[in-house]
Amino acid sequence: MLAAALAAWPMIAAAAGEPLVGPLRVGMPFAEVKATAPDAGWVETASQYSGKPIELRAAEAIPLAGRLYDLTITPGAYDAYEVRLEHEAPIAAARDCAPIVKALAAELEGRFGPFVPASTLKESPDWAYVVPGGRLVNPEISQRRPTVVSLGPAKTDGGSRLDHGRASVSADFRYWIGRRPPRDNLAVSVGAETDWRGGAPICRTGVVFDYRPPRPERDTIAFETLQPVRRPTISARNRAVEPLGDLPPEGVVIRLDCSLARRQGLLEGCAPPPETPEARGVAARNVARGYRFDVKALDPDNDVPLRIEVPITLSPSDRREVTPPEGLVPLTAAEAPLSSIGDMGRYYPSKALAQAVEGRVLVVCQIQSDQSLICPSETVESSAPELFAGISRRVEELYRARSTLTSGELSAGRWVKVAVSFRMAG
Prior knowledge:
TolA/TonB C-terminal domain, signal, 4-stranded mixed beta sheet, alpha+beta, 6-stranded antiparallel beta sheet
C-alpha cells in the first residue's frame, strides 16, 4: 500500500503556487487538494463563527521519506497558508527516533536546501547548541542519551542566519522554530520528539510549511462606519468623570487607539495619546468599555488585529448629582425588576473572603433614562462592614432596570433598593 501511495504522490513542481511536497503547493484550494486523492477520507472543519471551511485534514495522506504522514491545511488572512505533516512510529528506544528524522530532513533538503538547527532558547530546560559539523547537542542529557542529529551544514552564523528551510532537533528530539528569514515568505521546519504510551516509546515526527507573505501589523477601520449595539451608559459616564475636577465647560475629546475584537465587537487595549493626563486617560478607557459594535460584516476568522480610533468625550454634563430625597421609600426588586449582566459573586471582597467574613449590602439606586443605575447610598450589615465598602459601584456596573415597572409605569427617575448578600459556600 505504501509503495502504491509513493508512486501516486511524486514530488513534482506544481504549475501554480510554490510547490511544497507531493502535489501540494502554496495556496491550493481545498477542492483541488481533495481531488488529488479522492479516497483519502478528507475532513473539513468549519468556523464556529462564520461557517466557512478553515481547516482540511486527512490521515496518512502524504508519503514522505518512506512513511505516510497525516496532513492538516490551514489557510489564513492575507494569503497565509500553513501545511502540517505529522507521523507517529513505534520504536524500540528513544535513540531510534534519530534515523527517522534524519531521513525526513534529508528528503526535504533536496527541495529546500540544507536544514540547520534553529533553536537559541538557551533558557529552556531542553536547550541545545551547535558544534562543528552541524551536530546539535544538549549537555544536560548528553551523558545519558548521547544522541547527536546532523541536519546538514551549520550555516547559521550562531543561529541567526538561515537558508530557505529551517529545522532543529535537540538531543531529546524536541524541535524549535526560529525566526523567519526576512527575505523569505515560506518557512519550513522539521523535527521530532519521543513520547511514551503505556511504556512503549513513540517517535513523533513533523513538518510545518508556513507561508506568510507580508501583511500589515494591524488593519484599520473607521469608527464612523460601525453601528454600536451598546453604548456607554449614563451611569458609566458619571463614574468616569466623577473624579475629574478640571474639565472645561465644553468638555474634552480623548481619541483612543484601540483594537476591535472581530468576533465580539468589543474594544480592547485602548490607549490615549501620550500627552493625555493620566486621570483623563483612565476615564476615557472606562467609558470605552461600554461600547459594543455590530461586527456581522467583518471576517471573524481574520487573525490580523483591527485598529480603530475611538473619540471619547468627557464632559462636566456627564456628572450627575444624585441624592436620595428625605423620607424616600424605594421600590423593591419585585416592583422594579432588575437584570444582571454579570455575576456579583465574582466580586466577593478578597479580604472578606480570606477572613471568611460574610455580609449583606443594601444599595439604593436611581434608575436613569437608559435603565442604568446610579447608586449614591449603601448600608452594610456585617461584623466587618469596612470590608464591603464600595459594593454600590459593582451594582452600577452589573445591574440594569427595565423600562417599565411591574405596575406599568415608566421606571426612569424612580428609586429602587438592591440587596446583595455575600455568603460563604456550604
